[in-house]
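Data card: per-record layout.
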Amino acid sequence: MEDNDMKRISYLTLSAIVAVTALFSMTACEEFLNEAPNSEQPKEYIFSDYLRSNRYLTLLYYYMTPDWTGTGKFKGGYGLMESATDMSEYTATYGVPNNSFNVGNWRFGGASPEIEIWYDCYKQIRRAWMFLENADCFINGPEGRQEMMKGEAHFMLAFYYFELMKRYGGVPLVRQTLSLDSNYFIQRSSVDEIGAFICDELDKAQAMLPDKWDSEDFGRATKIWAMALRSRTLLYLASPLNNPDNDLTRWEKAAKASKECIDACEASGQHKLSQDWQNIFMRFTPDLIPEIIVFRRSGMYNVTFNTKIVNYEQATPGDEFWGFGSNSPSQNLVDRFPVLTYDAAGNVTGTEKFDWNNPQHVQNIYKNRDPRFYYTILYNDRFWIKRKIGTWHDGTVYGLDRDPKNHLYTKTGYYLRKFWPRECKDKNNPGSLRCYGYYIRLTEMYFNYAEAMNEAYGPDNAAGMGMTAIEAINKTRARLIYPASENITSNVSDPFYYVKVERDENPDLPVLPTGMPGMPTGMSKDQAREQIRNERCIEFAFEDQYFYDSLRWKEGETNIGGTVYGVDITKSGENFTYVRTKVEDRLFESRMYRYPIPRSEVYKLKIEQNPGW
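The structure for this 613-residue chain is written out next.
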């Protein structure tokens, strides 16, 4: 096939990069054409007016890649990304995309939206370049708005290239819109080159973006958005997958970027750690949750029981709920939540790792756990909304929430609670509440900082930065405050009102009036690394980070592959016996640290495929 023919085929597949019509190959600010195609608007029409230009730019937010709600991840298969890891088991047989990940068949059709997100990102990269190349043309905009809008486009270029980098590694770096006469055979840049480009775009964005927007424009990129994405980008570049020689200067840069973002949040007062941890995920929009930094403007608002994130992702199919929730948290995840330790007077003194060889731990398996456990997991014999959860069996008799013959019921002994509001009761009484997906919240900046500082300087060395790795983690733990119920009013305006509501039906929720006890000092770097990673796993469980973290840590063999465990619960009278049991063995091969580039792109653009694919 001749190169010219291949160019035209590439044009069809890389619609993101290429001009859709010959109109878009003209230079900026040229005179209007006399006549426009029926299906397209010429760029001269779009960019001559502020409102039309703004609508064009706003689509960059609308098409941001799927967030933790899972929408679009697996072609409507309802699976959360964590069910492709040892954090969760996806049970429903109609949700085969997760299963295709679990057996290493990453090319399977159901998984293609996640694997082939390549196309979506390049479409928006082209949109961002188109805006930047023509932004000087529009008129009638508010004073200074043109510069801020350019900043938004620079941020979005960085955002979409980061989404490509974290999946594919190095990708073709397109620095302008391409016409039909352009050379499409752009070879892949290295990960370091892509990372440098992302950081350069974020520098431009930060210089142009405002500190905050007026209320009508809330949800557009700000300076702190740029700083937060820089923190995440530099952490990925410093991580083992992208830093095989463990260049410590990369960790130092990641720590510095994270600290700058933390300091900017503190100085501005716009973003702060929330003490009401569970309500970060529901009941309010991001303007009322200052912990949220980067989110999708077109994210979810009102949810009901029948909304996908509740009904299909979490809710038990047992009587009185009648859901289809199929993302079952694993025992692997449950075991990660630490156990609180107490002194003789009943005061919390610290935490320790759950141990199946410790009879006290097993006998009190769901007692005295990290409070985030109770807001993340639905477990046997806890009351939830209208009745106790039953994932037990007594011989051939099963509790309401376990049925080995029905593919919708849990295989692990657990259901997901994290994004299921208590107001959303069941199919017949669906309720309604606010729920919002997002990408980055402030807590991540502390975790990014802690991870980078530990790798660069060790757990207890502040290195002139004003905060050690352990101090950063402990700051996020200290905000997990759970006063005694008698110290909480029944007024919904009380910041701890929902703590009382929770404890009224779940006495397992611990009393922590001064927050979670901190991690100890004096650990080795390796010990601290294990603790920091574990803390990150439970803090961001089901928030769409663990899968990608496992890749960058090069822990895919254990966290994505390996064995998934559940719990077998036997009931005898009013007593339960808990035994950890194997649910499934997963496959992970070294090639899976990078996604396969869509095969058509490899052939048509003459670029190199990722190893092993």
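Known properties of this structure: The longest helix spans residues 145-168. The chain has a mean pLDDT of 89.

See the next section for split statistics.
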